[in-house]
């Protein structure tokens, strides 16, 4: 039996208490405002949230912050007729009328603030989680003519794949995890049929044999094998971050400038770390030096070094990816090397996720 989340239990308890209080307040609110339809009055409050708050991008960690953002947007929408944070706009006259109703009495004010607090509780998981910026909500992997896209809310439109931006915050899995790819599958641009995976084993088989094997690197294959074993050994394999192979610098562009051997995106913080395997035989060794003088050899070696350094700077500047570089010495012991990678596969929930459990214990 799955262990009950004490934080979620505490939130549900608060939700029930607020709902009971709203039921007690409603007869007085209906009398004070003249609005007899409960659902219509609730829609007057909740239906404006997307207008007053940028729900696609804002990360909101408390009900006080949610109320503050709502009120700030409410005031701005009245002051700037037609302004909206992202939802449907409403005229200043309509909003002024709504404001008068919501401030009609002490009962309506309490109902209004409690309703917003309950809204925050019910959408807690969506509101507190870090969400990728729109430009970071899709990644493309693979070599030339063998590229695949991983999106959060993929939809096929006008012959290409894109995210349904309005649904990104509602995505039910941790971003960039095994569960994510099992939910969405991989896509090929120009093909309306996504490539789906029935279970963890099926994806890991594809990962090793189709995504990693074509690179020809014995080191990448060994790491992929250890990763597959690691995932299968976890109690919740669907929550393990993806070991993203061959991350393309220019996304789905047919001509790509760079690829990273591996990348891991932390699904909670969204921090990214790249993993580059750089054995001397392929990244440093010079061939065809016969007939070249020392200066020419040095110039060629420097050019190779500059190219490699530029690649890692470019990934950091464009994608905020810091890269770990493994050369021959660590590559001689792949199990030990994977032990270093493994720490980036472990999730550490943020402290704020405990707030409701702590509130219940202390209060």
Biggest sheet strand line-up: 5-6-7-8
Q: How many domains make up the coordinates? A: 2
Average pLDDT for all residues: 87
Q: What is the number of beta strands?
A: 8
**Spatial separation of the terminal alpha carbons:** 29 Å
Largest sheet: 4 strands, mixed
- Relative helix content: 40-55%
Rg, rounded, reads 26 Å
SS element count, helices: 15
Shape: elongated
Features:
single chain; 363 residues; alpha+beta; 2 domains; 4-stranded mixed beta sheet; two-stranded antiparallel ribbon; 15 helices; 8 strands; 49% helix; 12% strand
How does this structure look, described?
By secondary structure, the chain is α+β, with helices and mostly antiparallel strands. Helix content is 49%, strand content 12%. It has 15 helices and eight strands. A hairpin with a 6-residue loop joins strand 6 and strand 7 (272-277). Helix 4 crosses helix 5 (92-102), helix 9 (200-212) packs antiparallel against helix 10 (218-233) and helix 10 crosses helix 14. The longest helix has 28 residues, at 6-33. The chain is elongated. The two termini are 29 Å apart. The mean pLDDT is 87.
Short description:
This protein has 363 residues and is an alpha+beta fold.
Write the layout of secondary structure elements.
Blueprint: H1 6-33, H2 38-46, H3 49-52, H4 63-79, H5 92-102, H6 106-122, H7 124-128, E1 138-143, E2 146-151, E3 154-157, E4 160-163, H8 178-184, H9 200-212, H10 218-233, E5 244-248, E6 259-265, E7 272-277, H11 280-283, H12 294-319, E8 321-326, H13 328-331, H14 334-342, H15 355-362
Helix pairs in contact: 1-6, 1-15, 4-5, 4-6, 9-10, 10-14
């Amino acid at each position: 039996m799955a262990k009950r989340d004490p934080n979620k239990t505490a939130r549900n308890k608060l939700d029930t208490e607020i709902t009971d209080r709203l039921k007690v307040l409603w007869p007085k609110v209906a009398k004070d405002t003249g609005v007899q339809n409960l659902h219509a009055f609730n829609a007057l409050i909740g239906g404006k949230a997307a207008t007053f708050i940028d729900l696609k991008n804002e990360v909101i960690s408390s009900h006080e912050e949610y109320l503050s953002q709502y009120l700030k947007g409410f005031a701005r929408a009245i002051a700037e007729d037609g302004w909206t944070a992202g939802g449907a706009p409403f005229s200043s006259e309509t909003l002024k009328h709504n404001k008068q109703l919501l401030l009609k009495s002490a009962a309506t004010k309490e109902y209004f603030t409690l309703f917003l607090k309950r809204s925050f509780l019910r959408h807690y998981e969506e509101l507190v989680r870090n969400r990728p910026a729109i430009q970071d909500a899709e990644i493309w992997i693979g070599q030339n003519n063998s590229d695949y896209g991983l999106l959060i809310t993929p939809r096929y439109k006008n012959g290409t794949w894109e995210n349904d931006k309005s649904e990104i915050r509602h995505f039910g899995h941790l971003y960039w995890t095994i569960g994510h790819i099992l939910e969405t599958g991989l896509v090929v641009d120009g093909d309306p049929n996504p490539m789906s995976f029935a279970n963890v084993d099926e994806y890991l088989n594809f990962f090793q044999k189709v995504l990693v094997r074509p690179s020809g690197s014995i080191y990448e294959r060994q790491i992929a094998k250890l990763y597959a074993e690691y995932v299968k050994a976890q109690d919740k394999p669907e929550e393990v971050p993806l070991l993203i192979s061959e991350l393309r610098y220019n996304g789905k562009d047919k001509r790509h400038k760079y690829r990273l051997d591996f990348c891991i995106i932390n699904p909670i913080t969204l921090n990214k770390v790249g993993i580059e395997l750089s054995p001397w035989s392929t990244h440093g060794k010079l061939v065809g030096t016969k007939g070249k003088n020392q200066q020419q050899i040095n110039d060629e070696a420097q050019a190779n070094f500059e190219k490699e350094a530029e690649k890692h700077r470019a990934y950091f500047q464009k994608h905020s990816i810091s890269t770990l570089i493994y050369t021959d010495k660590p590559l001689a012991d792949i199990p030990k090397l994977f032990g270093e990678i493994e720490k980036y596969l472990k999730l550490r929930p943020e402290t704020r996720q405990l707030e409701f459990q702590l509130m219940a214990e202390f209060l």
